[in-house]
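Chapter review: from sequence to fold.
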Amino acid sequence: MGYGRMKPEGVDQMSIGPALQKVRQNRHLTQAEVASQLYVTRQTISRWEQGKTTPNIYALKDLAELYGVSIDELTNTSLLNPVQEEGDPMKQVNWMALFGIFWFNVLFTAGAVVAVIGLLVGLWVTITTFISAPLLLFIEWLLVTAYHLPWPASLTWYDVPLSLIFCGLGISIWPMAKNATVYLANFFKKYVRYNLKAIYR
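The token string follows.
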């Protein structure tokens, strides 16, 4: 929900769908490849091309940029007259769409977002702890040496190699965590962007 709108006023969905499909095929792209670039599902691309739903102006601009064509070329029709440009004031609110999007996000999306954010925070805390393990051990050794404190009984001979293993593990996980964070941030940005446009007539 939120990635497309049911037949906006003045737009012929039957002409848009085949046009979208033709341009995509001319660029030798699959629906899955386009979906990954726009951070939507492949089913969303399929519904656009079948004319079941129409991508809003933000999605059309992203598609046009991806395909390297203008929006008029992409849709083979004049879409910008009935639909307001991104920078124009959007005065009429589609209250039904707003209500639907609100409840969809509250009931289905909010929990997933909170869970994902929690997992990401936990992942980054773990990575930071792993990478800093040798440093923390070194600081503890400095304090014990500087203040002539008794060596903690909890520290054993294998703590040093173990901290180095944790550090290496944290460094190896870092790129994966970074890519996942960037992907989810872009996905959330596109999701909010497409939903925001959907609530205006």
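Two observations follow directly from the output. The longest helix spans residues 95-146. The radius of gyration is 25 Å.
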